[in-house]
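Data deposition worksheet. Section B asks for the primary sequence of the deposited chain exactly as it was used as input, without tags or linkers unless they were present during the calculation. Section C holds the resulting structure in token form. Section D is free text for depositor observations; keep each observation to a single sentence. Incomplete worksheets are returned to the depositor.
Section A, Depositor: J.P.
Section B:
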Amino acid sequence: MLAAAALLVLSYVSAFVNPAKAWYMMLPGLFFFPLALLNGFLLLWAIVRRSKAFVIPLVALLPTLFFLERSFRTGDSQENLQEDLPAVKMVSYNAGRFSNLRDRAGKMLRSECEDSVFSFLAGTDADIICLQEYYVRDTETLREELAAKFPDYDYDFYVFTGRYGCFGNVTLSRFPILDQGVLKFDRSTNLALFTDIEAYGRKFRLYNCHFESYNISVPGIVKALINRKNGIWKETEEKMKHSLSLRPRQVEQVLEHISGCGVQTILCGDFNDSPMSYTYQRLIRGHQDTFRESGKGFGATYGVLWPALRIDYIFIPDDFTALAHCTPRIPFSDHYPVVSEFTVSPVHQE
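Section C:
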């Protein structure tokens, strides 16, 4: 009980500790939800046994009342609020390079996966679409593809060229795009695409972010353990330490850019960090998490560890109002898309 309680308390603390300075502090935050469940079980177990030790998990669980809504919410959407204000529907989706569909022999069905993603996006009828890990053979193909598949949208993109094609971020908008640019991160193929948009007379800057991932595969670790591969834990530790040293710098780079943009901002994308993280705590300042405002149920977006892990987000300015939020569980990527609808507050007249 003491060990479980201590780990849960550390998960609260992890949201305020820069992992670049203490990388191991990230682990309790990553497993906040399972740790909360474990302490809940221990609390019930102690009560059934009529043990005075029930106080240990009880005290550890009290702060959960303030943090649980970051991962699980019982409230309803707010679709009937502020009906007189114009609304924007937005999708953020890590498409996973269209590599998640395979046939029975294990062959990648990239073309079929891509078509399925496009079909899903068309069905959402979103005003703004932000994609990460978008794969294409070359940039000319990308321009032709976006123009053909999304004829009603302006678009912005930045892709890295690799040995087997290009991949990166794409932003699509039915509203006029006024300006655009990219923040490239040092020693990384991750990036943040920023786009200035005007919607219903209101100008804002949209950041389509993909922060550094852990670069580890849970199935790969399990397979290595089964095969008794030496050094798997050391290798995993080094990968995590590397990503945790880069991600805080990437977050600070985006925040520094935001401080000089002069307009309100929307942040979205694959943050590769849980709501109990330094990344979340830094980026949420001055913004609202649309899930916490209008979501319901589990907010998890990473399919491999559903419902434990939420790493994809849409953050809107404080004076916007989130109306609805959902994460459709579609199988075209290892991530689930984030779909949100929110009002755009009117420009204040002097």
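Section D:
Residues 232-259 form the longest helix (28 residues).
The longest strand covers residues 128-136.
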